[in-house]
Write a structure and sequence with these properties.
Layout lengths: L2 H13 L2 H8 L3 H15 L4 E4 L2 E4 L1 H24 L15 H6 L1 H11 L17
Antiparallel strand pairs: 1-2
Helix pairs in contact: 1-2, 1-3, 1-4, 2-3
C-alpha cells in the first residue's frame, strides 16, 4: 500500500464517483479504478459498494477511511513538529505556585495563545505538588 493509494481512496470516499475523483486528483479514471482494485485485493475485501449513481463505502471501507484520516493527520503533525521555524508547537508545561496560577497565569496564557496560534488547544491542568 502506498500513500498515493490512500489519498485516492480518501478522495473517492468523499466524492463517491471515480470521474470526479480523477478530476480532483488530476488522474485518469482508469488509474483511480486500478488503484482501488489494488487496495481491495491487498486487503482481500471490497471497500466500496458500486451502484449506478456512484460508489459508497462498505463497513470495511469506513474502517479504512478512519485509519487513513488518522495516518494523514499524523503526517501533518509530523511536518509541523519538524518544521524549521521559530514558532512553538506542542505542549507547554508551566510550574507555578497557587497564587500566581490563580492571579497572573490566566492573563499570561491568554496573551501567549494569541501570539502563538499553534498552541491554542493545549490542556490546562492545575495540579498541586506538596513537599514533606
Amino acid at each position: 500500500m502506498e500513500l498515493k493509494d490512500l489519498r485516492i481512496f480518501v478522495t473517492l470516499a468523499y466524492e463517491e464517483n471515480t470521474t470526479k475523483t480523477a478530476e480532483v486528483l488530476n488522474y485518469v479514471q482508469s488509474n483511480i479504478t486500478a488503484r482501488i482494485k489494488k487496495l481491495e485485493e491487498e486487503f482481500q475485501t471490497p471497500l466500496f459498494y458500486r451502484h449506478s449513481k456512484g460508489m459508497t463505502l462498505t463497513p470495511k471501507g469506513r474502517q479504512l477511511l478512519d485509519y487513513a484520516e488518522q495516518i494523514f493527520h499524523l503526517i501533518d503533525e509530523t511536518r509541523h513538529a519538524l518544521m524549521d521555524d521559530e514558532l512553538p508547537f506542542g505542549h507547554l508545561r508551566i510550574g507555578t505556585n497557587e497564587t500566581t496560577a490563580s492571579s497572573k497565569l490566566p492573563q499570561l496564557l491568554a496573551s501567549y495563545s494569541k501570539k502563538n496560534t499553534r498552541m491554542l488547544n493545549f490542556p490546562f491542568v492545575l495540579s498541586e505538588r506538596r513537599s514533606y
